[in-house]
């Protein structure tokens, strides 16, 4: 249970202005509020309630961006964790390593714990985790734009 709580904090990452990877506290807060409002609208379809931040309502396109970010972030984490798990590592080690790399944070669990390194991973796993570090540091959207062919055609 403590490992799960620890990994949730790793995923959260830093605050909104932080240069570390992670979901960031503002995205998490707005996402949870939007989820709550969506559930309320399921129960009460005519409900006219919006999510507010600093007293101002947040536009729907902002939430679309947040959900796309969450999806991309967790998709990258799952793919990287699956690559590490395919290299015959346990799930705790594999997903801890992928979330640590994506979040650019130090603490890890399993075979890459606080007193261990990433040295024992095969080169393919190290390359995937290095890509996760870039995705976390540059943010998922910036990396997506960078590898998009449409960006380079302009």
Query: How would you spell out the order of helices and strands?
Result: HHEEHHHHH
Mean pLDDT: 84
Strand line-up of the largest beta sheet: 1-2
Q: How many distinct helices?
A: 7
Structural class given helices, strands, pairing?
mainly alpha
Task: Bin the helical content.
Answer: 55-70%
The first-to-last residue Cα distance is: 49 Å
> For the report, how would you describe the main beta sheet?
2 strands, antiparallel
What share of the residues does DSSP label as strand, in percent?
Answer: under 5%
Contiguous runs where pLDDT drops below 50 for at least 5 residues? none
Which secondary structure elements does this structure contain, and how are they paired or packed?
Blueprint: H1 2-12, H2 25-43, E1 52-53, E2 56-57, H3 60-86, H4 91-103, H5 123-138, H6 140-147, H7 149-153
Helix pairs in contact: 1-4, 3-4, 3-5, 4-5, 5-6
């Amino acid at each position: 249970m403590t490992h799960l709580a620890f990994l949730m904090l790793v995923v959260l990452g830093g605050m909104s202005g932080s240069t570390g990877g992670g979901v960031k506290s503002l995205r998490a807060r707005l996402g949870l509020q939007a989820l709550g409002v969506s559930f309320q609208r399921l129960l009460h379809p005519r409900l006219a309630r919006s999510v507010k931040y600093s007293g101002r309502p947040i536009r729907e396109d902002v939430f679309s961006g947040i959900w796309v970010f969450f999806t991309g972030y967790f998709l990258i984490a799952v793919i990287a964790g699956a690559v590490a798990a395919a290299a015959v590592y346990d799930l705790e080690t594999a997903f801890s390593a992928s979330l640590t790399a994506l979040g650019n944070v130090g603490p890890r669990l399993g075979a890459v714990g606080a007193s261990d390194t990433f040295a024992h991973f095969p080169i393919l796993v190290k390359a995937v985790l290095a890509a996760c570090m870039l995705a976390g540091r540059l943010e998922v959207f910036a990396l997506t734009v960078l590898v998009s062919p449409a960006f380079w055609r302009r």
